[in-house]
User: Fold this.
Amino acid sequence: MKKRLKSRFLFSNRWLDRNWIVGNMEAIQDLIVIILCLVLFAVMLMQLWGIFNALSQSLNYQQVTAKILFILILVELFRLLVVYLQEHSIAVGVAVEVTIVSVLREVIVHGALEISWIQTASICGLLLMLGGLLIVCAKTPHMDCMSANTKFCPFVELEKKQQQERELKHSRHYEEIG
Assistant:
């Protein structure tokens, strides 16, 4: 009996290669993310055109500020998608930043004085938790440094250097003994 490879499995009496399937699915997923990037870029341009029209007509500062913050949210989402294309992982810190700006935009759009005290307390609690999460994300090593693609990760490079220094000290110790 012929032994099958772990990357292959039987489906409808046909051998399918998991690596081929996963590779194609990742390519399709990258194409979807690229399309989303292009759509976000088009929406950013339309919003920018809307800001210029709003500035030329009447000055409603609340509306203009809300549109500017919306463009900033779109820029951060665009950056999140670009990081995903490069690293194939979601940057949690960027996602938290987008959420914070989105919450602040909603407060500006609806007016801080028109929000009830319960909603204000909830928003403050949410912003405190998001701020804490942002601090935790800044203090911990990034997940992309723990993956196989560690070429440009300062944490891995520092760890390699420290390991080499330990090995060098260890080898010198035995040279001095001998």
Summary: DSSP finds six helices and two strands in the chain. The radius of gyration is 25 Å. Residues 9 and 110 are 55 Å apart (CA to CA). Residues 18-56 form the longest helix (39 residues).
